[in-house]
């Protein structure tokens, strides 16, 4: 299984994009973070659904530090102040993909006297969508993704040795057992070869249900401990064609039950694949 690249991928610049860089936080970064107030940076457009949803999510879910909301126009004036950390969306491009595809990530960045934006330490980040894809593809999942970010931070704060060890191996070795849960799947996020109950059941004889986005949202809001859902990040019919991230997340515990990605081509479309179900069945 490929590395869990989404955990510690760095990208800076709301409304613009930079090349993705790897950064491994240090214990001193975490110590500094715990002393900060987290500034949640809102998008420029006040009508964006993201702004409404992230406000509600942070007020209900964010426990690890004090927080405030700021407009993006205030970010540059505050980013060099070490008493702040920043939760914000960023646009990322991967050079090695050899495409122009840009991805929208949710990042937690540490403030400080860094000359360039891409020098700000990234403590944790998760992929939300391709940049061209409508925000409705991910806003209903923001609560559980924020839970995951806090779980990750609490884990490495409690055991800083994980920072210097192989954090990717830790997640791979400690994934939840999806077979004991009900897997929620949205039909449009499945590859054509597995886009029906009969086709899935032929290779994955465990509990699953083909649902709507509203049903996934309800499971997240209700902290349904029995549900694991697919968080897929793909081009959704846009012109960009590069990576398809496939992450199975617990609706309540925000635990990772599966992670992989593939480069989209004629044989591997934008969706959860037959091979993904086979991997799950073998776990």
List key phrases describing it.
single chain, 283 residues, alpha/beta, globular
Indicate the percent of residues in helices.
25-40%
Average pLDDT confidence is 87
Q: What low-confidence regions span 5 or more consecutive residues with pLDDT below 50?
A: 1-21
Using DSSP, what is the number of strands? Answer: 13
- Name the beta content range: 25-35%
**What does the overall shape look like?**
globular
Between the first and last Cα atoms, what is the distance in angstroms?
12 Å
Helical stretch tally: 9
Class of secondary structure makeup: alpha/beta
How many separate domains make up the residues?
Answer: 2
Radius of gyration: 18 Å
Main sheet, how many strands, which sense, barrel? 6 strands, mixed
Order of helices and strands: EEEHEHEHEEEHHHEHEHEEEH
Provide a descriptive summary of the structure in words.
With 283 residues, the chain is an alpha/beta fold. It folds into two domains: 9-168; 175-282, no CATH class. Helix content is 27%, strand content 27%. It has nine helices and 13 strands. The protein has helices at residues 27-34, 49-61, 75-78, 142-158, 161-164, 167-173, 197-201, 213-221, 274-282; strands spanning 9-10, 17-19, 21-22, 37-42, 67-71, 84-93, 103-110, 122-130, 182-186, 208-211, 227-233, 243-250, 256-263. The strands form three sheets. Strands 2, 4, 5, 6, 7 and 8 form a six-stranded mixed β-sheet that branches. A five-stranded mixed β-sheet has the order 10-9-11-12-13. It has a two-stranded antiparallel ribbon with strand order 1-3. Strand 9, helix 7 and strand 10 (208-211) form a beta-alpha-beta unit. Helix 2 (49-61) packs across helix 4. The termini are close together. Residues 1-21 have low confidence and may be disordered.
């Amino acid at each position: 299984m490929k590395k869990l690249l989404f955990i510690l991928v760095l990208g800076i610049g709301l409304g613009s994009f930079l090349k993705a860089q790897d950064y491994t936080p240090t214990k001193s970064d975490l110590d500094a973070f715990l002393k900060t107030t987290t500034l949640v940076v809102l998008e420029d457009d006040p009508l964006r659904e993201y702004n409404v949803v992230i406000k509600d999510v942070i007020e209900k879910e964010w426990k690890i530090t004090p927080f405030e909301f700021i407009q993006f126009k205030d970010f540059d004036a505050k980013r060099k102040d070490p008493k702040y950390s920043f939760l914000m969306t960023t646009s990322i491009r991967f050079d090695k993909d050899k495409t122009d595809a840009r991805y929208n990530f949710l990042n937690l960045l540490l403030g400080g006297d860094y000359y360039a934006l891409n020098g700000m330490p990234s403590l944790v980040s998760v992929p939300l969508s391709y940049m061209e894809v409508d925000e409705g593809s991910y806003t209903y999942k923001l609560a559980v993704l924020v839970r995951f970010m806090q779980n990750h931070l609490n884990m490495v704060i409690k055991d800083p040795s994980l920072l210097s060890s192989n954090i990717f191996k830790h997640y791979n070795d400690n994934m939840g057992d999806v077979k004991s849960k009900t897997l929620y799947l949205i039909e449009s996020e499945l590859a054509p070869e597995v886009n029906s109950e009969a086709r899935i059941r032929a290779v994955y004889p465990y509990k699953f249900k083909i649902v709507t986005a509203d049903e996934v949202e309800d499971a997240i809001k209700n902290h349904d401990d029995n549900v694991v859902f697919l968080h897929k990040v793909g081009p959704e019919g846009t012109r960009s064609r590069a990576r398809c991230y496939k992450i199975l997340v617990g609706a309540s515990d925000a635990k990772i039950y599966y992670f992989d990605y593939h480069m989209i081509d004629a044989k591997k479309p934008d969706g959860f694949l037959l091979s993904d179900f086979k991997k799950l069945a073998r776990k």
